[in-house]
Amino acid sequence: MALNTNAVGKPIGPLKRDYTWKDVVLYALGVGAGFSELNYCYEKDLKVIPSFSIAMIFDLFFQVAVASSINLAGVLHGEQELIFHNPIPTEGTLVTMGKIVDHYDKGKDKGALIVAESDTVHANGQKLFTSIITIFGRLDGGFGGKNLKKAPVKFPNREPDCVVEAFPSPDQPLLYRLSGDIFQLHVDRKFARLAGFDMPIMHGLCTHGFACRALVASLVPGRPERVRRLACRFSKTLYPGVPIKTLIWRTAQGKAIWRTVNAENDQVVIDNGVFEYGDTP
User: Fold this and answer.
1) What is the mean pLDDT of the chain?
2) CB 276, CB 255: distance < 8 Å
3) Which residues pair with 18 in a beta bridge?
């Protein structure tokens, strides 16, 4: 089935998501937090990991995929950008409105890109964050659309300023999926093999959450509410239980670039990372 290019520009939503402090903590545990970061895991003085935002609106991912008629056997998260307007409260109701911005054709054997943008507000009226998501349809290329070319992020020719190691559990996807992404690619061995993998793979957004924790701890320790922008490209899949390292370069006041690598072979699993931080304007 070809991509439904008529879906471009049509509104998706409103999507509503109620959540409590338990959802905030469950997400934190799902991305590797524990007693060493009790402010993410204990309702007393609780703070929200900024990447929690994308987990709470993950239904939009599948709404976009279904509206675009993506072949789900080949769907992967391609890129993710989050722009934060206000700190995320520890409970409440989120309301999200989005739309598909465009479809891009990388070629018959290279897949397609589906870009969607959304804004999320809290029930208290505050605009919390903007999400720009790029879905990679590995099996959907060759529909005759235009290609998308983006300039890569330029990394300094020097050692990173910070290197943060992490050790996801072999069972990490089983916990992370409880925050909303229950796609069978991350839990069902038979489905994973049909999709071309030896076993279920890590959620890209789970690794993304590990990276977000590393960035906050390195650049705005104890103050996740100071995160203004978090952007990246998912470049390679990762199997559960494989250790990772997040490499961080400070580039200017309030700005850094980053990538996350497989610590066993140094392959980049998340690339072109951008992190911006500061007080709310």
Assistant:
1) 92
2) yes
3) 93
What CATH class has 5-277? alpha beta
Residue spans per domain, the chain = 5-277
Q: Is 181 a catalytic residue?
A: yes
183-220 pLDDT, tens digit per residue, is 899 999 999 998 889 999 999 999 999 999 999 999 99
Token pair recorded at residue 150: 């983006």
Q: What is the pLDDT of residues 227-236, one digit of tens each?
A: 999 999 999 9
- Catalytic-role residue among 105, 140, 181, 271: 181
Say how far residue 151 (Cα) sits from the centre of its chain. Answer: 20
59 close to 15: Cβ distance less than 8 angstroms: yes
204, 248, 257, 270: the catalytic one is 204
Q: Which amino acid is at 120?
A: T
Is residue 204 annotated as part of the catalytic site, yes or no? yes
Can you give the pLDDT at residue 1? Answer: 56
Which amino acid makes up residue 164?
V
From the list 77, 103, 186, 203, the catalytic residue is: 186
With beta carbons less than 8 A apart as the criterion, state whether 275 and 227 touch: yes
Q: Which residues of the chain have pLDDT under 50?
A: none
79 in helix, strand or coil? strand
Choose the catalytic residue: 100, 135, 201, 270: 201
